[in-house]
Amino acid sequence: MDIRNIIKRPIVTEKAVLMKEKSNKYTFVVDKSANKFQIKYAVETLFNVKVKSVHTSNCVGKSLKVGRYAAGYRSDWKKAIVKLGKGQEIQLADKV
């Protein structure tokens, strides 16, 4: 798997920004088939940082109401929380 396809996008929410500021953890949406070793290698290669640990979570898509009677679902996705070593930083556009 290509490392550019492993990390899809960063998650920039209030909780993610607080985790970044307090404990140097960054949150990403990643490919569902990627494992922790692939995620660690992709982050270290793309952002030129040293990763301390990776935690992953499979998030189940929510059910939606589409139209009057039909039901639909959002896609399932995978979230990775990456903790960087001391003094490491990733420049993200999280200041709005």
Strand content: 35-45%
- The side-by-side strand order for the widest beta sheet comes to 1-2-6-3
Q: What is the name of the CATH class?
A: Alpha Beta
Number of helices: 3
CATH architectural grouping: 2-Layer Sandwich
Instruction: Determine the CATH topology.
Output: Alpha-Beta Plaits
Largest sheet: 4 strands, antiparallel
Structural class: alpha+beta
- Assembly level: single chain
Straight-line N-to-C gap: 33 Å
**Mean pLDDT across every amino acid position:** 92
Secondary-structure map with pairings?
Elements (H helix, E strand, L loop, with lengths): L2 H4 E4 L3 H10 L1 E6 L5 H12 L3 E9 L3 E4 L3 E4 L3 E8 L12
Antiparallel strand pairs: 1-2, 2-6, 3-6, 4-5
GO cellular component, one term: ribosome
InterPro entries: Nucleotide-bd_a/b_plait_sf, Ribosomal_uL23-like, Ribosomal_uL23/eL15/eS24_sf
Subunit structure: Part of the 50S ribosomal subunit. Contacts protein L29, and trigger factor when it is bound to the ribosome.
Q: Can you walk me through this structure?
A:
GO terms for molecular function: rRNA binding; structural constituent of ribosome. This is Large ribosomal subunit protein uL23. One of its GO terms (cellular component) is ribosome. It comes from Endomicrobium trichonymphae. The strands form 2 sheets. Strands 1-2-6-3 form a 4-stranded antiparallel β-sheet. The protein contains 3 helices and 6 strands. The protein has one domain (3-84): RRM (RNA recognition motif) domain (Alpha-Beta Plaits, 2-Layer Sandwich), CATH 3.30.70.330. The protein has helices spanning 3-6, 14-23, 36-47, and strands at 7-10, 25-30, 51-59, 63-66, 70-73, 77-84. The protein is elongated. The protein has 96 residues and is an alpha+beta fold. Helix content is 27%, strand content 36%.
